[in-house]
């Protein structure tokens, strides 16, 4: 199975921060995985937020993986911040709230970093100054949208009105009468096209297995998020439109989860490695929960099936795996029906609540 990660490692650039924060909804992830105090979990690290959210449930062990040292540096800085800062200071360092004190906050965290992570952050003080949640290529893409494109379509007052939310009828009326203009649709189709998004937001290699119009699918999901979900409770939408968190926070940054995450930091370990190599080195039937992000989108179906089989071998009976489809459909093949059960009703119910609205599907499966 070494060809699974090797293919994406060779096609995509993992040298810098791709995601300064996790753009997947930890609320639905936690409900899907149903973690308890005996759970051993594997989690794709990304920026670290959702891995830390797993700790809020008090699992026995969480193993975070990523191919990118830069992404693991993001996780390390979060761990250090949870160790030494108070909740309000964490929000300042993350960029969620305004601050003129981020360099001093980082200095307090610095001694808790590995030499590699310390060197990474020391060499990029501007990233600290902006807040670690704003550091990735994806966040810079949204910043460009927010600063240069959105003002050509909607005034700040209209953005504020959108984010105030309201009941379902009010949201739908506001969208149809005030938000869904021809300028909005034209801008969206250009800025969130495969071409622009691949070059400014994600790596072009991440679209290798996507078919059809990228922009049209994301536009449909955005319409759902602005009308059927409440924008006032959506931290992902709020960051995209304002560059901070004013009304809502993602799970790992909420005050009610802070102490539980802090208390369980010693149950977390991280590795710069691929999922297939870690599974090959581990014991069979030893993992209870898998946060797999959207990694299956980045590989052809045969490689996905091969890696899924390795996940099943590593999972205990009843182990759950959760992953997202953004544009490339990935679900358990019928050939694995005896080994893996789709929890479709649960997944569909959670997908309808997904505040990270650009994904087309949320998949939850259980090892038989």
Primary descriptors:
globular, 368 residues, alpha/beta, seven-stranded mixed beta sheet, disordered N terminus
Question: Your description of this structure?
Answer:
The protein has 368 residues and is an alpha/beta fold. The chain has a domain at 137-242. It has 19 helices and seven strands. It has helices at residues 3-11, 26-33, 49-55, 69-84, 87-94, 102-110, 115-122, 125-130, 137-149, 156-163, 168-179, 182-191, 194-200, 214-227, 235-242, 255-263, 275-281, 301-314, 344-351, and strands at residues 40-44, 61-66, 268-272, 287-291, 315-325, 340-342, 361-367. It has a seven-stranded mixed sheet. Strand 4 (287-291), helix 18 and strand 5 form a beta-alpha-beta unit. Helix 2 packs antiparallel against helix 19 (344-351). Residues 1-6 have low confidence and may be disordered.
Distance between the termini: 22 Å
How many helices in DSSP terms? 19
Largest sheet: 7 strands, mixed
Shape: globular
The oligomeric state of the chains shown is: single chain
Radius of gyration (Å): 20 Å
- Residue-averaged pLDDT: 92
State the total count of DSSP E strands.
Answer: 7
Q: Going across the biggest sheet, name each strand in turn.
A: 3-2-1-4-5-7-6
Low-confidence runs of at least 5 consecutive residues: 1-6
**Structural class estimated from helices and strands:** alpha/beta
Kindly state the percentage of residues in helix: 40-55%
- Beta-strand content bin: 5-15%
H/E element order: HHEHEHHHHHHHHHHHHHEHEHEEHE
In short:
This protein is α/β, with parallel strands linked by helices and 368 residues long. The chain has helices at residues 3-11, 26-33, 49-55, 69-84, 87-94, 102-110, 115-122, 125-130, 137-149, 156-163, 168-179, 182-191, 194-200, 214-227, 235-242, 255-263, 275-281, 301-314, 344-351, and strands at residues 40-44, 61-66, 268-272, 287-291, 315-325, 340-342, 361-367.
């Amino acid at each position: 199975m070494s060809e699974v990660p090797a293919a994406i490692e060779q096609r995509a650039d993992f040298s810098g921060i791709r995601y300064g924060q996790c753009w997947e909804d930890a609320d639905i992830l936690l409900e899907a995985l149903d973690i308890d105090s005996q759970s051993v979990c594997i989690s794709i690290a990304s920026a670290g937020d959702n891995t830390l959210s797993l700790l809020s449930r008090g699992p026995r062990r969480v193993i975070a993986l990523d191919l990118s040292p830069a992404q693991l540096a993001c996780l390390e800085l979060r761990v250090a911040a949870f160790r030494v800062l108070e909740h309000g200071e964490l929000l300042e360092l993350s960029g969620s709230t305004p601050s003129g004190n981020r360099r001093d906050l980082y200095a307090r965290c610095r001694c808790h970093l590995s030499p590699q992570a310390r060197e990474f952050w020391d060499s990029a003080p501007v990233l600290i100054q902006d807040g670690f949640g704003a550091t990735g290529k994806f966040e810079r893409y949204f910043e460009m949208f927010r600063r240069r494109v959105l003002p050509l379509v909607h005034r700040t007052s209209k953005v504020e009105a959108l984010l105030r939310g309201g009941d379902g009828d009010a949201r739908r009326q506001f969208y149809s009468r005030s938000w869904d203009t021809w300028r909005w649709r034209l801008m969206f189709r250009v800025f969130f096209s495969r071409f622009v998004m691949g070059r400014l937001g994600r790596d072009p290699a991440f679209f290798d297995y996507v078919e059809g119009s990228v922009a049209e699918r994301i536009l449909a999901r955005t319409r759902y998020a602005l009308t059927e979900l409440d924008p006032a409770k959506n931290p992902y939408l709020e960051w995209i439109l304002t560059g901070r968190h004013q009304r809502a926070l993602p799970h790992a940054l909420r005050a009610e989860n802070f102490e539980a995450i802090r208390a369980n930091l010693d149950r977390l370990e991280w590795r710069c490695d691929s999922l297939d190599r870690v599974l090959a080195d581990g014991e069979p039937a030893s993992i209870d929960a898998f946060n797999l992000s959207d990694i299956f989108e980045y590989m052809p179906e045969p490689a996905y099936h091969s890696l899924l089989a390795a996940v099943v071998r590593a999972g205990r009976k009843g182990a759950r795996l959760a992953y997202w489809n953004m544009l490339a459909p990935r679900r358990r093949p019928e050939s694995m029906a005896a080994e893996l059960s789709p929890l479709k009703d649960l997944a569909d119910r959670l997908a309808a609540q997904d505040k990270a609205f650009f994904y087309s599907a949320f998949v939850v499966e259980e090892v038989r």
